[in-house]
Amino acid sequence: MSEVKSRKPANTAFKQQRLKAWQPLLTPKTVLPTLFIAGIIFAPLGGLFLYESDTVNEIVIDYTHCFSQTLGQPVIVGEDQYSYTFTSANTTVILVPTMELTNSTTWMDGTAPGDGSLVQRCTIEFTIPTQLNSPIYLYYRLTNFYQNHRKYVKSLSNNQLKGSVIGSPEAGTSCTQMSTDPSGKVYYPCGLIANSVFNDTFSNLTLLDVPGSTDDNQTFVFDDSDISWSSDNSKYGSYSGDPSSVAPPPNWSKRYPNGYNATNIFDPQKDKHFQVWMRTSWFPTFRKLYAKYTSADPLPGGTYKVSVDLNYDITQYGGTKSLVLTGTSFLGNRNSFMGLAYIVMGCICAFLGIVFLVRNFYRPRKLGDHDRLSWNNHQD
């Protein structure tokens, strides 16, 4: 008979728990300085972070219901649908943004919808009250969109996105609820995330009535070639199979009305907007980078317009979509959460330090006092 293998752990210091260890004693002399030092560090840092966040200039304009406006008639954006946040003193006069709905036979890139439908275009005019230095970032902001839902997050095929050909069984496992079309073709790319990709299109910013110039308008070009994480490039590749063997997702029908062929097959490695969308958000309200302005020339104050091709219906989710134009600080975008969190934590540490200090001053306790043992306090 073979020997029974022993399940006894090896006789080593790690597995036999003989490593040297140090367990600090929590005494007033160690706890009180720690709390006060934490309070002294956290609170000023929080104030610095909050100040830096407040120095970021930002414009947010909700254009959700632009599609329902009367054609060719500019309308004023409601007070609850836009916000201006500027630090410069020269921001006393801010014109209310306006939106105007028009129809076009082509998208901004010059191509026409394959089904012959018209493209709804929303032109937004707004004021930048002071000069903005680059870099300047253009985001879209969505609300009430739960990208963090478990079924949604898992509904994709990493193998397919890297360019591999997958069959219906693998697509059905990876891309729940969005794997194949009625004819049995696998969707490319499959999954709920890809099918719901944000597809509104923003134009460059145009300055109207350029001051001190004979030109009526001046266009500032925003670049979208470097908006995704550099590490995302390794996650995507060109499709290696027959384009006619796969089908575009249902919500991509206007973009590919006749399906895929050798000349128009979707390439996720080149589509940076797709890569940004595929990095799902943790919260139902989020913003994603669309383009950025990195030229050395600043954006002068004045009235600007930007056009948006309305392709994305957010109303079916009961949400909203907004245009966000913002700068940045060394902490990133405008967000007061980190600063407030540090301030609150610093105040809590300082408060607890004061409470424990007073408690120790009026009712000190001797370390290792035998009179505190339960059997010494037992009364018959």
TrEMBL record:
GO terms for biological process: phospholipid translocation. One of its GO terms (cellular component) is Golgi apparatus. It comes from the Eukaryota. Keywords: Membrane, Transmembrane, Transmembrane helix. It is found in: Membrane. It holds the Pfam family CDC50. Belongs to the CDC50/LEM3 family. This is Uncharacterized protein. It comes from Mortierella isabellina (Filamentous fungus).
